[in-house]
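TICKET: design request
STATUS: open
ATTACHED STRUCTURE:
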């Protein structure tokens, strides 16, 4: 089906967005990428990601701020999009403590504009990034979509939960098919520099200490980016049917590796691959963090046949190889 698609990918200069755009192009789709090159982290890395897409056939790019209503309306009016993959957002749990306005603007206002654009353009399916953060204070592992997500512990998580609620409303009122994907700790080549793989690798190679929260007893469901992309593509070509009491064409899925790895084990694997020992600064839990994430992926597997294929050791080898090549480390 990809060959007949014309897909808008928001956040196309972002980590997951770049990989999704490449995969859709590989599958024969036309892709229009949008990004604002926000300065939350190194813009040069975003520009380098964007450059990998710029010369590809069937790809077009537009620099655009999704929080600007008129710009988004014009984008959809001219775009002729059959599908939308909305990955643009203000990421980061800890940053939401110091700059909440960025989350209101980029995760709430911008998402509303994308929904309006999809609604008026008659887009066949909107797939958007939610987050494992919505599970918040839940302690029953693995996390499943049947569990309540009414107690987020960070503003970032609250905005992602809000996205799911507003998407459901659009699905119900306007019959816009929407699917939210709750991503679990995505890593891999071209990853975000504010996340553990990049932060730790840079510090270990420089002989600098790494900050290890909860004294290394955090557990995360590290999910390799290629597995995430596979899930996104599988979902995109399968708009949801009527769901729940409202009968809205709406779905939410976990997408993870289904394997909760202790942070200390993650660091040990990275040390082995880098050939250096980390200097660890052991710290307590931080506000907004959760001790463990672990995805039940039964629902996504049943709907699409999805199964993760990349164990952490394999994914980290690929990440380290990319990091050394890109940064000359």
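STATUS: resolved
RESOLUTION: sequence designed for all positions
ATTACHED SEQUENCE:
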């Amino acid at each position: 089906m990809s060959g007949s698609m014309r897909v808008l990918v928001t956040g196309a200069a972002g980590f997951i967005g770049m990989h999704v755009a490449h995969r859709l192009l590989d599958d024969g789709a036309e892709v229009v990428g949008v990004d604002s090159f926000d300065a939350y982290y190194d813009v040069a890395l975003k520009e380098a990601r964007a450059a990998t897409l710029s010369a590809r056939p069937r790809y077009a790019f537009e620099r655009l701020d999704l929080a600007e209503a008129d710009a988004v309306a014009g984008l959809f009016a001219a775009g002729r999009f059959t599908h939308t993959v909305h990955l643009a957002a203000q990421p980061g749990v800890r940053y939401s403590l110091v700059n909440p306005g960025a989350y209101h603007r980029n995760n709430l206002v911008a998402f509303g504009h994308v929904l309006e654009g999809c609604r008026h353009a008659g887009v066949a399916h909107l797939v958007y990034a939610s987050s494992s953060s919505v599970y918040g204070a839940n302690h029953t592992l693995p996390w499943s979509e049947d569990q309540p997500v009414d107690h987020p512990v960070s503003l970032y998580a609250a905005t992602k939960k809000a996205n799911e609620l507003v998407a459901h409303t659009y699905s119900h009122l306007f019959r816009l098919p929407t699917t939210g994907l709750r991503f679990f700790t995505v890593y891999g080549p071209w990853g975000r520099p504010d996340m553990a793989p990049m932060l730790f690798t840079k510090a270990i190679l420089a002989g600098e200490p790494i900050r290890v929260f909860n004294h290394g007893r955090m557990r995360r469901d590290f999910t390799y980016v290629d597995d995430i992309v596979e899930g996104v593509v599988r979902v995109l070509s399968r708009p949801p049917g009527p769901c729940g009491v409202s009968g809205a064409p709406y779905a939410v899925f976990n997408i993870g590796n289904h394997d909760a790895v202790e942070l200390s084990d993650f660091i040990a694997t990275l040390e082995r691959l880098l050939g250096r020992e980390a200097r660890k600064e052991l710290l307590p839990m931080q506000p907004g963090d959760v001790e463990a994430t672990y995805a039940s992926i039964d629902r996504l597997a049943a709907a699409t046949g999805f199964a993760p294929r990349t164990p952490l050791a394999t994914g980290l080898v690929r990440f380290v190889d990319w990091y050394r090549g890109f940064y000359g480390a």
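CLOSING REMARK: The chain has a mean pLDDT of 95. The two ends are 41 Å apart (CA to CA).
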